[in-house]
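Input sequence (276 aa), recorded before submission:
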Amino acid sequence: QAAVADKRESDGELSQKDAQQKLTDDLLGKITDKAHKIKAKRWFWPVASAVIVIFVVLFIQFNSVIAAQIASFISPGDAEGQTIIVGTGENQPVSDGPRVIIPKINVNAPVTYGLSDLSEASSQKALQNGPINYPLNGANATPGQKGNTVILGHSSADVFAPGNYKFIFVQLNRLAVGDLFYLDYGGKRYTYKVTQTKVINPNQIDQLNLGAEKPYATLVTCDPPGTVARRLLIIGEQISPGPNAATTSEASNVTTKTSTTITGKPKTLFEQIFGK
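Predicted structure, token format:
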């Protein structure tokens, strides 16, 4: 009996040791698993941080392309004091100040005339307030004059750039031959019918010289929106008031300082910082 009792006591001790060992192994297993997970996270967070940084950098640099595509679904984009246009004609009330009106894409924006400096920096500053008259040699007319009246506006810009007209011409590529647009100038409304659309390189300034036989107006913006690769020209001939009454443009309208390329979208934040 004593031997049996000793055996039972020994089995009990072994059973207790097995239970303790099992508990120890379970705890070690859980600790090891936890350590592996923590170690894995140490790899994850640097990678995730790098991905986020890259995304932010790409967004800052190329947000104008993304924003332009989004703005193309918003008519006509970001414009202060925008008016929904139901119809426009020469007999309707004329704006107090110069404006460009494009019913097809719901644009009604102020236009700045009389710039004496068309350098990149000066043009970009003026474009913050809306499209600008962009007179060049051979294309220095104003509405009502023979020759070409050039109106330049943004189709896109950096979302961080100042101004309320960054996307005013984003839908300009929807215009086709036969469409109408209007320029309010000097208390009169001038009506133009689109006769031609073309895409040119930024340095092909000579393409804006249409001669001085007729009164023209050309709307200009970057193409495709969000890039500075090309320039879209929407060329129209004046049909009202009668073009025969148009006067001859004066050479004094030409600005004294111009660029060798047609102004495009503003520089991105990184381009401004690094001077690209």
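Checked by second reader. The chain has three helices and nine strands.
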